[in-house]
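Example 322.
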Amino acid sequence: MPSIETRLTKSLGIEHPILSAPMALAAGGKLAAAVSDAGGFGLIGGGYGDAEFLKQSFRDAGNARVGCGFITWSLAEQTDLLDLVIDHAPTAVMLSFGNPAPFAAKVKSSGAKLICQCQTIAHVQAALDVGADIIVAQGGEAGGHGALRGTMNFVPEVADYLTANAPEVLLLAAGGIADGRGLAAALMLGADGVLIGTRFWASAECLAPDGHLQAAVSSGGDDTLQTSTVDIARGKDWPPDFKVRVRQNAFTDKWHGNETALTAAIQDVADRYMDAYKAGDAENSAAVCGEAIGLIHDIPTAGELVTRIAEEARALLDQNRV
Ligand SMILES: Cc1cc2nc3c(=O)[nH]c(=O)nc-3n(C[C@H](O)[C@H](O)[C@H](O)COP(=O)(O)O)c2cc1C
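Predicted structure in complex with flavin mononucleotide:
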């Protein structure tokens, strides 16, 4: 298959400009390795910081070249996890949702590429200040945590900002990209590649409960919302600027907009929420996914997805449609 060569593919030494996102509780070593083995680049989800999970994920990744992503405010509570990851010689480390400054120098001096996920131009400047090699411009359509900007205009705004201020820094688009149309469009918007979460979440290698995946693939793009209720139920102390996008369900219908009552009932709700999650109950625990679920109708292997997305994008770019 002819590949799509961009500054990103050259910089990371990969075939296709496709990265899988470091999805908390979903992206382990098998998913990341499958993406890398298919010619993309996979990131392990460091999530809320579990040393045993990280060690197992790197074992599962075998010899594949992979990276690892952290939720930065959570890493700040367990800084030794960065050393653990760096000991595994990741090709890249991604920092999202918080100040990258305390960790950037260690990542850079390890030789790993520093990827910073950004939701505003102020975040982009903060990432440039600490020497980010790659910026991810994330739109609010994204699955998981995010903020308010739309991918369609945020990506080109960041592209212009980088052209003016740091032309050597690479740009990935994230949020709502699930197929070759999204990849081709992201390249047109000025990105060097894409970071995809939800589409790889709905894959055979994902660690999320199967009941969540099945519910998501039969849902549409109108069926998600950004909410803080899920983090309240899980006891995750997220900064207020970030909400998590999940599939709307009985849990969010009951509690979204009723956060004060949820907090008051938390002891009871938290246990029931975790039991529902373990059972894969997609109505009483949240499937974490983005608006792109409206584009997703199957649960193939991650490797198949890389090939499919790359082939579709290549064909569209070759047609040179206007
Ligand atoms: C299930 C799930 C978990 C996620 N967890 C994280 C995370 O732990 N850290 C992170 O930086 N981004 C996380 N994200 C967001 C992704 O990095 C990325 O921005 C997003 O998936 C892109 O949008 P898309 O889902 O429409 O592809 C997560 C996304 C999903 C779907």
